[in-house]
Amino acid sequence: MPLALHIVALISLALAIVCAIWIAQDERKRPQHMWIMNLVWPLCALFGSVLVLGFYLSVGRAPLKTEQHHDHHGHQHGHGHDHGHDHGHNMSGPTMKTVAKGALHCGSGCTLGDIIAEWLAFLLPAVAVAFGWQWIFAEKIFAVWVLDFVLAFGFGVAFQYFAIKPMRDISRGEALKEAVKADAASLTSWQIGMYGFMAIAHFWLFPQVLGTELRTNSVEFWFVMQIAMLCGFVTAFPVNWWLIRIGVKEAM
């Protein structure tokens, strides 16, 4: 493995972890209005690093707890403020920052699912076998992708449920159905971008160009995964715009 790539991967991962920890700590003093977003921001920082940190500081950071209490008290007396809450729509459709939040909301579930799936299949190869390795797929990566998708979809639906249920006056069953509907297209479009870049890295870039294997227990693998997740964000962005536009997904 080239030393320069190893160093870049170490720096990128370390910086992302620092950003995720900083956001998580900041959210303790400034909890998100929608509690699920307290998980979304640090999880997305694991791949988006300073980009997600900058976006969080720009549009995602909530007021301090004391300010939130004051604002709530003000609303009770009929003179509260909106604090710039973005309702996500204008005459031409959802705003760019609303779509970005929606895509990141999807990406957080993908991130959590992919981390668990990759390490689970690496530490327990029988899991990859159960999902098709050696009897459906000759390449282990395809079986892991199936597991990736299942877990990412499960987390994604859960994350969507906890966004939709508090914002709509509907039953739990209806909220779950709406969550599945909202996450199916969004997650699939994200995974297409992520899988696409991982395939390029796994089958061409590392074996053909660098002459080495991309292994799960290497910092290079997770650095490539960071880039793959950013590719997922790009492919999911237009789909999230459309889903928010037609009202299938809630504006964050």
TrEMBL record:
| Domain annotation DUF4396: ranges | 97-249
Q: Which domain of life is it from?
A: Bacteria
Which residue ranges run through the membrane?
36-59, 119-136, 142-163, 184-206, 221-244
Region named Disordered: 68-92
Pfam families registered for this protein in UniProt = DUF4396 (PF14342)
Q: Which keywords label this protein? A: Membrane, Transmembrane, Transmembrane helix
Instruction: Give residue spans, biased composition: Basic and acidic residues.
Output: 79-89
Q: What is this protein called?
A: DUF4396 domain-containing protein
Q: Which species?
A: Thioclava kandeliae
